Amino acid sequence: MNTSVWCLLFFVIILDQLTKIIVKTTFQHGEMVMVMDWFYLYFVENNGFAFGIELFGDIGKLTLTLLRVFFVLILFRWLLDLINQKQSKVLIFSFTLIIAGAVGNLIDSIFYGVIFGESPLFFGKVVDMFYFPFKSGFYPDWLPFLGGKEFVFFRYIFNIADASITSGAILFLLFYKKLKLKES
Hints:
Elements: H1 2-26, E1 32-36, E2 39-46, H2 57-84, H3 89-115, E3 126-131, E4 135-138, E5 150-153, E6 157-158, H4 160-175
Antiparallel strand pairs: 1-2, 2-3, 3-6, 4-5
Helix pairs in contact: 1-3, 2-3, 3-4
């Protein structure tokens, strides 16, 4: 069990970092390449957190990066406890995905600014590249506030780390009832 956990953890981190480095070193910022009608590689960088939200400038960025480090350490400790308690394999798998994704994005935030000569340690941007605009069109004119405006269904741009975190979180939510809680 332990071997498969570590293999999954390192596989996701390495795959995430490889795709990010390839995109960062071969694409121009904002460059988009169509793979299929509904799938693009679109190089953007996220200086904040989910959906590109940024708070409080440099202080907010540093705080966000330090909070990410703190939460990864807490989740890692929790994962070790789950393994030691021989919890459900699905829960361990879900935590492994969440941690691997978090570490992948943390590497960007901590080191990419320095590695690519763009910002100091802890101020790097997260590289995103997967874009799936499944459907686009215009909202009906009768719709208040949005009528006549363009929409794109699934406009979010993400990376393997984000997909890993999301998949792990969904698995956790589906199977959290299998947690064996300690009796007091």
